[in-house]
Amino acid sequence: MKKKKIPLRKCVACNEQKTKKELIRVVKTKENEFFVDFTGKANGRGAYICPKIECFNIAFKKDSFSRSFHVKVSDEIYEKLKKELTDYEK
């Protein structure tokens, strides 16, 4: 019997490959809305990040989400995403 392939994704901050379930997906919709997708199934372009605030701080310094989404991500959006991630950690 074949083994089922486990999908791997790379964190935009630390570049570690982990299973899809270990990472959190950040989504950009066609309307340029950004939000954290805890289900992993929302429509839009996704980028993955570890559920640690350290990784988020690295992504903010490197402006990793701007590179992933091919559009400038403002500081307000980073603050909104940071709040959603810190609420998730609790």
UniProtKB/TrEMBL annotation:
- This protein's source sits in the domain of life called Bacteria
UniProt xrefs under CDD domains: YlxR
Show where the YlxR domain sits.
9-83
Q: What is this protein called?
A: YlxR family protein
